Amino acid sequence: MDETLSVRFEEHRPHLRAVAYRMLGSATEADDAVQDAWLRIAQADTEDVENLRAWLTTVVARVSLNMLRSRRRRREEPLDARLADQAAGGPEPEREAVLADSVGLALLVVLDSLTPAERLAFVLHDMFDLPFEEIGTIVERSPAAARQLASRARRRVRGSEPPPGDPDRQRRLVDAYLAATRTGDFEALIRVLDPAVVLRADSHAVPGGRPVVLRGAEAVARSAVASAARARATEVATVDGAAALVMVLAGNVSVVLTFAVRGERIAGIDVVADPDRLARLQIEAPDGRRR
């Protein structure tokens, strides 16, 4: 193995992980993509590579694109299976929180609604300034077609921004989600959740200390039903100016659920229990007290 290549790869690892995370929306999958890319790169001849960073970005993007396409072909794993895997360990919670905060729940929700090719074109061009000539090569299309992919994705991203001054809709949906969770009403949860809803729970929010990502209304509804007992200790509050759910134990906030809304349904849920992340939230209880 070329030790120089190994050292240079490690120098670019944070950048490559950021690319993979924005493509995949999961720190665990991002790590897998970067590792897979390294296994390929370690066997490649890089002597004639002029811009190693750009070349590594392309390799990681190809791996991430394949993972996105594979994800679309398979059904979401049950939550029980994900929790059972947590004994194997996972990414550092600090890094998971930083990655999630750097992208934002609302944007991740929109990205999840794009096709793999649209997501790749938008992420690589708009977030990492990769030229359309290189993006077209990855998705096996012309530069003009790659530009169109990014343009469509950009319109979707901008068009999915929540309208200002509409807190009542979010409050109604959060109230409905909490009521259905408390009673274990699976069908009511399905009605309030977007079919492509994504739930992300940080490593402090689940047993075993490994972040969990759930996709799809059924997977998220099953998880909510399983949390019925915890929901009884949860109340609606205002977090960073929007309706959210807060669990208070012994007078301290222990878990916060923030929501992203698309249309008349919940499209994203971020479950935060990391003390450092909780400390950065502006939480106002229903009685108006700051927590």
From TrEMBL:
InterPro entries: ECF_Sigma-70_Domain, NTF2-like_dom_sf, RNA_pol_sigma-70_dom, RNA_pol_sigma70_r2, RNA_pol_sigma70_r4_t2, RNA_pol_sigma_r2, RNA_pol_sigma_r3/r4-like, WH-like_DNA-bd_sf. Residues 150-170 are annotated as: Disordered. Residues 106-156 form the RNA polymerase sigma factor 70 region 4 type domain. Keywords: Sigma factor, Transcription, Transcription regulation. The keyword RNA-binding does not apply. Residues 9-74 form the RNA polymerase sigma-70 region domain. Pfam families: Sigma70_r2, Sigma70_r4_2. PANTHER family: ECF RNA POLYMERASE SIGMA FACTOR SIGI-RELATED (PTHR30173:SF43), SIGMA 19 FACTOR (PTHR30173). Interacts transiently with the RNA polymerase catalytic core formed by RpoA, RpoB, RpoC and RpoZ (2 alpha, 1 beta, 1 beta' and 1 omega subunit) to form the RNA polymerase holoenzyme that can initiate transcription. Belongs to the sigma-70 factor family. ECF subfamily. This is Sigma-70 family RNA polymerase sigma factor.
